[in-house]
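Quiz preparation item.
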């Protein structure tokens, strides 16, 4: 197991369309910060994948050890970053997501048991696992993801921009596919739970009331 760090260099990366939820701003302001260097960077724009690519490059420029990705419509506990760091260290892992849910019915987790891409299209399955504990998954959304910056460096070297969308696939799933192709595991820490701000704040209880998994396919 990798020894626990006592001094961290972390970049918090926040892509946004043009505004952020008030609750998100409050949560960000109360976010507990481990000892070490800490920087917050945000880029606004209509192309989220472009903002993510630029933020990834900025994190590398800052020589950050870790990048904490938050979407600007997330509600989270103040210890979210600290707990995800602990999970990475305990599991000797490189990428971990918290648990949050889609903001429209049926409010399924933004997590995928499997994700495959064959060069022209993709096939994936919604998450059907437990809503607690740490689990390896096929892909995650990027509303709350902590990763080692080394993952970005490796993807830039192999594929170019890490978040550029594959055919018919969003930038977050595209990133996860590239990372897994390079041998990285994607983890879900389902004990780190977030709210997703929409017309209502989506929570685990709402998901449980309306849950259901499906298989989706897309072709370009």
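Solution:
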């Amino acid at each position: 197991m990798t020894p626990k760090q006592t001094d961290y260099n972390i970049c918090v990366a926040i892509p946004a369309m043009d505004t952020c939820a008030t609750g998100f701003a409050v949560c960000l302001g109360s976010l507990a910060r481990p000892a070490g260097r800490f920087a917050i960077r945000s880029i606004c724009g209509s192309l989220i994948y472009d903002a993510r690519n630029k933020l990834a490059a900025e994190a590398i420029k800052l020589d950050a050890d870790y990048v904490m990705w938050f979407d600007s419509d997330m509600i989270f506990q103040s210890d979210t970053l600290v707990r995800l760091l602990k999970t990475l260290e305990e599991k000797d892992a490189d990428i971990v997501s918290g648990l949050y849910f889609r903001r429209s019915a049926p409010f399924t987790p933004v997590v995928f048991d499997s994700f495959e891409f064959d060069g022209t299209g993709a096939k994936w399955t919604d998450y059907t696992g437990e809503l607690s504990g740490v689990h390896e998954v096929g892909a995650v959304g990027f509303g709350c993801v902590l990763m080692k910056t080394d993952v970005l460096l490796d993807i830039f070297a192999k594929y170019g921009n890490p978040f550029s969308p594959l055919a018919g696939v969003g930038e977050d799933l595209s990133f996860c596919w590239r990372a897994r192709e390079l041998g990285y595991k994607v983890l879900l820490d389902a004990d780190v739970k977030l709210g997703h701000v929409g017309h209502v704040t989506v929570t685990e209880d709402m998901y449980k009331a309306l849950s259901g998994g499906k298989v989706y396919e897309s072709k370009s």
